Amino acid sequence: MTPTREKLGDLKRRAGERIGFSDARFLLEHATGCTHAELIASPDRAFPDEVLRRFESLVTRRAAGEPLAYLIGSAWFCGLEFLVSPAVLIPRPETETLVERAGAHARGIRRPRIADIGTGSGIVAIMLAKYFPDAEVTATDVSDAALGVARANAARHDVTPRFVQSDWFSALDGEGFDLIVSNPPYVAFGDPHLLENGLPFEPQLALTDGVAGAGGLLCIRKLIEGAIRHLNPGACLLIEHGYDQAARVRALLAEAGFSGIRSARDASGIERVAEGIQKTED
Ligand SMILES: C[S@@+](CC[C@H](N)C(=O)[O-])C[C@H]1O[C@@H](n2cnc3c(N)ncnc32)[C@H](O)[C@@H]1O
Question: Does residue 58 sit in the same domain as residue 108?
């Protein structure tokens, strides 16, 4: 059976009332394989029942809180579309601040050696590889499934970072970098935000260190400890962190002997990325 025009229109309207009209539009495009323009240009187009059932099922999952990006399999970051799966964090606009600060540090270094620790979908490493074609970019993650998504994104965007499975710096023995960037898991274990806004569908490994009482800073501490051994003299460490963690992350960098410590604000004006410079050798 094929639906009548009215039926398709009704379906879209009902979906819009449940999940918002923008999400309903994206899910309809995904289920039908048609662009928005095609759907507008051919409002009488009929679709097989199977397609409409797929749409209904996506709408039901969205209504249950599953993020749109996982349902359609992609998300936008820095103006590019990246593949995502439930193995990776969905790219957040705040992370553009990390890329901007990384760009400011990498500019001017010839063939910079850059490491993105905890690369997830690969967004940061891939943007840096695109902006700095002569850079040697290494992207690590402890999750093999995340690295699979990151590799697919690198191929999609025609760049070739080196991907390494690594628990923080464990697989980077003896390597030095001119810039280390990371958006580590930083939500405190047990934070009620973990139960909201689709976060239960995202990998907990990407969101929190899982340790009660650590204030979400355990991964950041490990990152700073490890980075000290892998930054070339005068090189920079950039860490994305939570909206209320800036002062504590600056203090951790100071304790570890970094200089030039400062924070950069995201587009909402929140201190979001801390940076420090590794001591130069005496
Ligand atoms: C907040 S996500 C960031 C992902 C991506 N860089 C982004 O900005 O969208 C943190 C990432 O750290 C990874 N991770 C967690 N524990 C790790 C560990 N011990 N070693 C390396 N990566 C780890 C997670 O798998 C996840 O991909």
Answer: no
